[in-house]
Design goal:
heterodimer; A: 111 residues; mainly beta; 4-stranded antiparallel sheet; B: 111 residues
């Protein structure tokens, strides 16, 4: 998964705490995505960005916010974490009609 | 609703045997279809990507087929190896470069 770096890799939050996940890519791709993966379910799109300064809602955006101030970075924020947000989060980047590259994932537990 | 369905949910085969995984989709418009391999605890890694006009594409022991008329795809793994044990995810790229994920087929290759 070279080229897409997620930080942190693991995190435990208490209900109501906030945090920001960082995704950084060095492939100069326009498109970036945040997904969550839960047992028995496919990756679900939270938010995505089609370029610097743009963001859009995906399938499950509630409880999350994002920002794309720089082309190489896509931030995912949880303002007030809830146990339902316990999941594995993946960042991805792609060019049009090219393969998507994924980060290694962030395992988040909200207690 | 745009959906991607995969079968079987899980599969156990003996090392050296072949297997075929199925993917049916209802995504429209359709840009391309991808197969990814996801090892436990890792991000998905691309195996193949096929556009509307492509019927088959190979990547080593992996061969993907696509029938855009019936909206079906398959991934055939030849001479399976223990390292093939993973989740295989079918992903359809619809409009605006949004990737729609299937829930995956969990493959276990036993010695």
């Amino acid at each position: 998964n070279a080229g897409v770096t997620q930080t942190p890799k693991f995190r435990v939050l208490k209900t109501g705490q906030s945090m920001t996940l960082l995704c950084a890519q060095d492939m100069n791709h326009e498109y970036m995505y945040w997904y969550r993966q839960d047992p028995g379910m496919g990756l679900r799109l939270i938010h995505y960005s089609v370029g610097e300064g743009t963001t859009a809602k995906g399938e499950v955006p509630d409880g999350y916010n994002v920002s794309r101030l720089k082309k190489q970075n896509f931030l995912l924020g949880l303002e007030s974490a809830a146990p339902s947000q316990t999941s594995v989060y993946f960042c991805a980047t792609t060019g049009m009609a090219t393969e998507a590259f994924f980060g290694q994932g962030t395992r988040l537990t909200v207690v | 609703k745009n959906q991607v369905e995969q079968s079987p949910q899980s599969l156990i085969i003996l090392e050296g045997k072949n297997c075929t995984l199925q993917c049916n989709y209802t995504v429209s418009p359709f840009s391309n279809l991808r197969w990814y391999k996801q090892d436990t605890g890792r991000g998905p890694v691309s195996l193949t990507i096929m556009t509307f006009s492509e019927n088959t594409k190979s990547n080593g022991r992996y061969t993907a087929t696509l029938d855009a008329d019936t909206k079906q795809s398959s991934l055939h793994i030849t001479a399976s190896q223990l390292s093939d044990s993973a989740s295989y995810i079918c992903v359809v790229n619809g409009a605006t470069n949004k990737l729609i994920f299937g829930t995956g087929t969990l493959l276990a290759v036993q010695p």
